[in-house]
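Q: For a teaching handout, I want to show students what a protein-ligand complex looks like in token form. Below are the inputs, and the small molecule is adenosine-5'-diphosphate. Please produce the holo structure.
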Amino acid sequence: MRKDGESGGGKGQGSLKRAAGMIIREVPALFPATVILAVAEAAYPYIGIILSAAIVTELADSQREIGHLFFLAALMVGLNCVGGLLVAFLRQLQDVLKYKQMKLLEKSIAAKSWEMDYKTTCDPKVHEKRNMMPHWGYEHGLVTLAQQASSLLESLFVMGISIVLVVEFFSARAVGEGTVVRLLNHWIFPVVFLLLFGSNAAYGIWSAARSQKVVYQANKEIEASNNLAVSLFQSCCAEYQRGKDVRLFQAQKILLQKLSGLYGTIVKVQERAKGVARRMSVSADLGSNIFNLLVYLFVGLKAIYGAFGPGSLLKYTGMVVQMGNGVEKMFNTIREIFQNKRYLDDYFAYLDMENRAAEGSLPITDKIREDYEFEFCNVAFTYPGMEAPSLSGINCKLRKGEKVAIVGRNGSGKTTLVKLLCRLYDPQEGEILLNGVNIRQYQYEEYLEFFSTVFQDYSIFAFQLGENVAAESVYDEKAAACALENAGFGERLKTMPEGLRTQLYKYFYEDGVELSGGEGQKVAIARCLYKDAPYAILDEPTAALDPVAEADIYQRMNQFIQGKGAIYISHRLSSCHFCRRIMVFDGGRLLETGTHEELLGRQGLYYKLWNAQAKYYQS
Ligand code: ADP
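A: Here is the structure, written as tokens, with adenosine-5'-diphosphate included.
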């Protein structure tokens, strides 16, 4: 079962608080490292400012001591070295921890994608969201939170240190007589300074809050196009198996057109977003520069009128620069935090998506496994977003020990029936019962354990052969080899360079072994046999095999399925007429049911399909 940490925990909390909690739990060293880094980065520039001011003051003093001067210079160099090294080390540490966090993000997205309802995973909007999140990478969401916390803290520390210097600066009084000196020592100056500083800060925060929405929207548009472009590139250029069709159908031109269209959109939106960011930073910079200019003027006048010496002049001008940088950093960080909150909202909305399928709690007991009966009661189902039902008015029973064949034309609803039986979807009308209880009421994972399946669009992963058969990395090698033998893969297994440990496909390893369509299907059948679940579903498991291999495998599978329940879906009617019951589907309805002989005698759709196929085999 999934740990709470992987889901982000803390459902219902604000997304910033929840993300912080998640980081503290999963990457505990990150926040302490962030705080130390913020303090070190904030304090570092002041080493130079304060000590160079002290050196200049000492130099300007007629009774200066050379020893003291050397001490100050050595202290400045030493502290600069230590501070520089500490900052570099902490930045590196933060980067490593950030990488760890990135993996946490990817793991949580993957875990949610696998546990969410199958129906939800098929929704294109969900699909888009899922693919987009890992592409945020280091720029948005969870991964940037610590960086932003560090920047905010640093700017606050800088302001704190600056405030101390500002108080010291205003306490230094200009000396002499006259209007200028009276004005410089007047209380109105600190008040004007505070007002200017406050309005500059308020404008920065206001514009940050206003612009983040525009920038976020632009980023989303860019990411959507980028995501499509990456998927297109991935599926059509990077997946070498598609290369055949691309070449033979000369699809390069249409692919390049589509990629260029997407890149064009990305550039256009990026220009717009950059324009917004530029306008924002120009107005913020203008405000800060006017503020800095006024403060410089004031510092200069006070120095001229004897409030402090050249050393302090250096210190206070340094203070103005640092304070300006601190304010700018603070506004930028606040904007980023506002913006990032939207990404975090999206991330947690994804993790919190409801899993309706997992709501049942009844266990699948040994008693049920030993004796079971499924019953479809007036079941109807329409795929999400479709108008016409793919199945309607389905009533039938499937029992232990009974092999049932499902036949019918393409699109008649055969696969949909087994998807409902496996709870990949739930019917909108009617219900499916297992031993008289609606299948929704059973514990979902235990219910899934009930089925061994081979789907038409089976998946063989780029893992080792044995891992594919067992769907686990630790498995019973003898049983896996036996399953492959029974699936008709025995001879091929002998030619595999590393036996069960042979790596399949060349995605990850140069020496990976490619499988033909028929071989892949045999491995999928072996996986079904290895699982050895109470009920078997074989949806055209042998479509890619030649008739001789098919007959051989069916015979072996019959032995394996002995005593269990099974559904066979096949287009070749000849391969399933051994089933005791055949259900004929047409247009989403169960049209006919009976044995092969009964159905032929009825001269309905089955009779027509049988004769149409028999003609080909006879000729
Ligand atoms: P069969 O297995 O008999 O060939 P299916 O059960 O796969 O037929 O499909 C029945 C109908 O449902 C078809 O019209 C098909 O287009 C439609 N269908 C299948 N899968 C989906 C889906 N994921 N979304 C929408 N419609 C679907």
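A: Two things your students might notice: The two ends are 56 Å apart (CA to CA). Residues 122, 383, 386, 390, 408, 410-416 surround adenosine-5'-diphosphate (CB under 6 Å).
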